[in-house]
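Notebook B, p. 112. Complex prediction, attempt 2.
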Amino acid sequence: MLPPYVPILILGGAALSFALITLLASSLLGKPRPTPAKSAIYECGVPAVGTARERFPIKFYLVCMIFILLDVDAAFLYPWALIFRELGMFGFIEMLVFVGLLGGGFVYAWKTGALDW
Amino acid sequence: MNAEAAVFYVLAAITVGSAAVVVLARSLIYSAFALLFTFVGVAGLYLLLGADFLAATQLLIYVGGILVLLLFGVMLTHKLYDLDLRSEVTQFLPGVIVSIGLFAVLALTAWRTDWAGGDGRAPAATTREIGQLFMGRYLLPFEAASILLLVALMGAAMIVRRKRSA
Amino acid sequence: MTPPVVDVLPAIPALILAVTGLAVLLAQAFTPRGQAAPGAPFSLAGLLAALVAVYLLAARGGGDLGGTYVVDAFSLYFHALIIGVGLVVVLLSPSYLRATGIDRGEYYTLVLFSLVGMLGLVSCRELVSLFVSLEVMSVALYALAGLHRARPESQEAALKYFITGAFSSGFLLYGIALLYGASGSTSLVAVGAALRTPGPATAALATMGTGLLLVGFGFKVASVPFHMWAPDVYEGAPTTITALMSAGVKAAAFGALLRVFGQALPALAASWQPAVAALAVVTMVVGNLGALAQSNLKRMLAYSSVAHAGYLLAAVVAAPGIGVEAVLFYLVAYAAVNLGGFGALAALARQGREPLSLDDVAGLASRRPALAAALAVYLISLTGVPVSAGFVGKFFLFRAAVNAGWTSLAVIGVLMSVVSAYYYLRVVVAMYMREPLGEDAWAPVPPSAGLALGLSAAVVLALGVHPEPVLTWARLAARSLL
């Protein structure tokens, strides 16, 4: 069962070794010469304000949860999309029910202000 | 040892090793990052078994979603970054005995069982077959999964909802 | 390839409930903020429609959906029971929700979705579908348990229920995986066929899977080593939800337990029967002794619900035969009694408070004679005094255990029932023999709750005096499992 996935394996290996070699090379070749500017936290060029380790608002949790639910929803779409043409109307309705149920949930979340920031 | 076995052992080592880090890490954030490698390792194992759809889903949902949620969970919690999670070790000996016993029983059973292996061939591509099963035989659990997602969404929305004057 | 043709008719009752739930949710979404959508009338209409659908399905002779979801006499019996439980809970809810300030449309949506999960749980003939149904039911109940956001107990209940529930789901899933490994299928019938001729090589695996399933179900029905969540969750959850949990979840979980163990695992009966018997003994003893020590009525009823899981398990030991119909009959009696008991507490709630201690119900008979009488009927039935559903039900349970050769179980059950009389009748004594303390702090019984409580009491008495029709039906349902 291995051959079809060998390219993915090679790609993964290449990505991993690129990251490792870069890190290794810079630590071997370079000499650390810290200056205040260099050791400051990089924040897109703007001086950093406060610490990054702050408590996040709970709202992020809901956004992330909604993202996961959409993620799962999308994952269920793939197998259906592959055989969509063979299924015809029945399959379409089945998927409509599936997506519609969760869609109702999003309408609810939106209208009740769960998404208000 | 052929190539397939070699890949399996590498993936298994990644999975088990990172899972050990998840359990033993001093900080919650290290645990969460180690979990990334566990998830990827498991996805690799799925791929090795020919379960391509499952592997893709594992990456999409667990690595792309659940892990982010976990990290958010850490960030939502006050000062959990630097919290030392190690607690006092109590019941060390009974714990060891129970874990080793459980492991021995499970391993022995897994080793000696004549597993129901089907016809021994992995399917070429599973996504299409899974689609046919979802739309046919497993229609009801498929739609029930949607209700499950909806309920989860409602629960999350209710937790987050700001307290309003009724 | 021709498109797959699936007969969705058997799932119509569940579909009706799901659509009603979605309608209530959308109605709430489009209701101005701070107001509640009319969830109760919607839900009642949906539940009645589902009940009609069940009746029509029964007339049609059931059906089968792709082999994963089957509507036989067994599922129809549970369908009627679960929808009945839903009706009573919805009738009890509006006044309670208003009294405790948690009146929102989502409540009814979640109740309906949890009922959908229960219907699936008793109808699935395939382990993965069963698991999805279980999760639908459980996740909805986790959210419902924590509905009362201002009360820390409610939050604690939701968290405890969620963590132990997720833990038990893990056990169940592990058990399912091992059974799949041993048999190569997740269909109950195929698992049963594969295990009928087990080689020594798969027997150990299947036994281990069975054990894990038993642990998972043990959590869900709150049998003793796995009951620690029950008192806290029952106490903290909104009382109408506690009623739903004690009546509906227990019925659905026992239904799934009977179906899985009866259809997939009869070949392993020799190894799981002693385990179930041991669970039954400790559950009966610990549940009843725990209830003795409680001063909070909700906690007392929670331990009593643990104890009753023990009585029911005593008959599950005799499951492949007479035990099934005894369990089925008792589940109806038990559901009516628990809906009534928790419902009576909920009906009296006023301004966020409800009667929780013996002092709170002291002299209730002089102030709310009808409600006190109904509550007395439920408590007497829980004890198992003759001419109540509880007596007839316990008689069948213990007879099933004796017939299956487990006389000791029946003896322990009877002894423990005697012990239980103390804590049940203590409440009756407080209601009838004591003078009321202080001002009347409780709400007048609202009409819809009165109807629900009257219905439950009528069922309890009717089953006690004339159990034949339900018993015949239970026998029919039990036979369809074989």
